[in-house]
């Protein structure tokens, strides 16, 4: 399907030709839908702990972490363009006339242009915005009185002012602390000191960023970390990586032939956050916290977040130790006794909610032993789950595997057959939502790091419809980082308080009480 010239072009991009050929084949065959069996709910798939139990796990983490290497992994690629979509609409449609004012500002509410303007002084970047306007001869107070909003919005999103429309979320000022304000990056520095600080006071934080924003992240950290090191008695070690271009996937036309740009070159696109499994695989730590860049709160609301990060890590350590113990005992058993067989199966089924294939109890004992060892010898993740309050995104489900086993997985709507009424009924019965709040253990019982690529489900990618220069195309996303890329990990779901989930998807989310400092 590929010409010699296209093959050469792919090789010059440092992308394996075989990989592209498999992608082209996948466009033709599609991805099989996931077979969800039931939603994970409290008592069956999702664990819940009372205050006393939560405190016990947090204390366990604080005690055991002195023997652990720890890192905070923060996916932070991409510009914040979507966050400022409403402001771009104001720029395009508001011309100061009564008609355009009525069209844009008549509607009231927090997430409206009117709500934005009425509360503009509450934003952490207000002082900086007023200063850059003043430098160019504008008084923001006068502009507001005159309802001359266009310069205000323009100076927020464009390079002549704050340039937020072209920056990543991590570099946007999120929270105000008196005369000072913090970016999302700074909030992650603070969080790292509060729950990811090692026994020697080192705090390791790894940001995945786009190449064009790399220097901005480094400058932000270098300019601010001194204050936080002094305040929290920490020493920061920040590392950065990009979503490797070699993970980009080829785009195709609607007939599945390679999509060509106007100059005849092939079009490759970033393969979604699933490509970050490569970045994660390059980290060598005992405990890895994963949390999105925009899910941060000011200090006045951090207590719950910090507590439950420690709770999830304590659960990870506890369950990981049990997995190690059973792996050693089963591995050393020349002849796996009924007692040991039943004990390990009970742990996996009752504590990890792993369901063995039908008839597993009748398997030859050596075959059963090898299967159990394979299940025990996997990376482990403890995933916080919040009650679903209408947020879009993935959720926790039991999934039927190809060998007949049932495992816990985070599943997106795009991964299931939406034409199947039974599958949709299961999807709609879900009670919890994935806020991307994970703690991961990626080493085996001997302390050796797993090769995370060995645990990816290659059949769980997604094909989407996009366009380029007015032409329709099909794009391929790799198995998502916390979806198919972690499909063959041991998984625990734990209910965490809804107040730990405070993403900033649009600019006015920063006006929610959780993002306003007391």
Secondary structure layout:
Blueprint: H1 4-12, H2 17-29, E1 36-39, E2 41-42, E3 45-47, H3 51-64, E4 70-75, H4 85-93, H5 98-105, H6 113-118, H7 126-135, H8 140-145, H9 149-157, E5 173-177, E6 180-183, H10 184-195, E7 202-208, H11 214-232, E8 235-241, E9 249-250, E10 268-269, H12 277-281, E11 287-291, H13 302-332, H14 338-350, H15 365-376, E12 380-387, E13 395-400, E14 406-411, H16 421-428, E15 432-433, E16 437-441, E17 462-468, E18 471-477, E19 490-495
Helix pairs in contact: 3-13, 4-9, 10-11, 13-15
Which terms summarize this structure?
518 residues; alpha/beta; three-stranded antiparallel β-sheet; 16 helices
Structure characterization notes:
- With 518 residues, this protein is of the alpha/beta class.
- It has a domain at 259-512.
- The protein has 16 helices and 19 strands.
- It has helices at residues 4-12, 17-29, 51-64, 85-93, 98-105, 113-118, 126-135, 140-145, 149-157, 184-195, 214-232, 277-281, 302-332, 338-350, 365-376, 421-428; strands spanning 36-39, 41-42, 45-47, 70-75, 173-177, 180-183, 202-208, 235-241, 249-250, 268-269, 287-291, 380-387, 395-400, 406-411, 432-433, 437-441, 462-468, 471-477, 490-495.
- The strands form five sheets. Strands 2, 3, 4, 7, 8, 11, 12, 15, 16 and 19 form a ten-stranded mixed β-sheet that branches. A three-stranded antiparallel β-sheet has the order 1-13-14.
- A hairpin with a 2-residue loop joins strand 5 (173-177) and strand 6 (180-183).
- Helix 3 (51-64) packs across helix 13 (302-332), helix 4 crosses helix 9 and helix 13 packs antiparallel against helix 15 (365-376).
- The longest helix is centred in the middle third of the chain and has 31 residues, at 302-332.
- The protein is globular and about 85 Å long.
- The model has no long low-confidence stretch (mean pLDDT 95).
């Amino acid at each position: 399907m590929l010409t010699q010239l296209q093959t050469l072009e792919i090789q010059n991009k440092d992308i394996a030709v075989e990989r592209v050929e498999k992608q082209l084949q996948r466009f033709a065959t599609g991805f099989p839908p996931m077979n969800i069996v039931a939603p994970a709910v409290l008592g069956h798939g999702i664990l819940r702990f009372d205050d006393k139990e939560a405190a016990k796990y947090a204390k366990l983490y604080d005690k055991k972490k002195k023997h652990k290497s720890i890192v905070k992994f923060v996916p932070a690629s991409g510009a914040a363009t979507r966050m400022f979509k409403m402001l771009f609409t104001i720029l395009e449609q508001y011309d100061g006339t009564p008609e355009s004012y009525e069209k844009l500002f008549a509607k009231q509410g927090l997430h409206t242009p009117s709500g934005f303007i009425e509360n503009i002084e509450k934003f952490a970047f207000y002082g900086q915005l007023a200063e850059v306007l003043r430098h160019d001869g504008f008084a923001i107070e006068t502009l507001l009185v005159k309802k001359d909003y266009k310069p205000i919005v323009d100076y927020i999103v464009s390079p002549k002012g704050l340039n937020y429309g072209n920056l990543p979320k991590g570099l946007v000022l999120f929270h105000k602390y008196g005369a000072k304000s913090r970016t999302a990056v700074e909030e992650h520095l603070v969080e790292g000191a509060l729950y990811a600080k090692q026994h020697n006071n080192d705090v390791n934080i790894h940001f995945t960023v786009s190449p064009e924003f790399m220097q901005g992240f480094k400058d932000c950290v270098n300019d601010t970390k001194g204050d936080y090191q002094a305040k929290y008695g920490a020493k920061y070690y920040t590392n950065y990586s990009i979503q490797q271009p070699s993970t980009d996937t080829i785009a195709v036309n609607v007939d599945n032939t390679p999509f060509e740009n106007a100059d005849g070159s092939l079009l490759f696109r970033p393969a979604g956050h699933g490509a970050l499994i490569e970045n994660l695989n390059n980290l060598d730590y005992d405990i890895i916290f994963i949390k999105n860049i925009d899910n941060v709160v000011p200090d006045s609301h951090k207590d719950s977040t910090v507590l439950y990060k420690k709770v999830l890590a304590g659960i990870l350590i506890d369950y990981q130790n049990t997995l190690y113990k059973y792996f050693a005992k089963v591995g050393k058993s020349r002849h796996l006794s009924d007692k040991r067989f039943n004990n390990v199966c009970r742990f996996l089924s009752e504590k990890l909610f792993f369901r063995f294939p039908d008839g597993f109890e009748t398997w030859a004992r050596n075959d059963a032993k090898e299967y159990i060892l394979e299940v025990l010898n996997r990376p482990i993740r403890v995933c916080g789950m919040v009650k679903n309050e209408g947020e879009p995104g993935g959720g926790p489900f039991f999934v039927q595997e190809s060998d007949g086993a049932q495992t816990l997985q985070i599943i997106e709507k795009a991964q299931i057959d939406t034409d199947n009424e039974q599958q949709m009924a299961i999807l709609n019965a879900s009670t919890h939502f994935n806020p991307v709040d994970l703690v991961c253990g990626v080493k085996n019982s001997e302390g050796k790091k797993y090769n995370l690529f060995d645990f990816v489900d290659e059949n769980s990618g997604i094909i989407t419809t996009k366009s380029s220069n007015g032409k329709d195309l099909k794009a391929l996303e790799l198995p998502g980082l916390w979806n198919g890329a972690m499909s063959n990990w041991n998984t625990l779901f734990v209910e965490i308080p809804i107040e730990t989930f405070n993403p900033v998807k649009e600019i006015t989310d920063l006006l929610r009480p959780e993002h306003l400092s007391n």
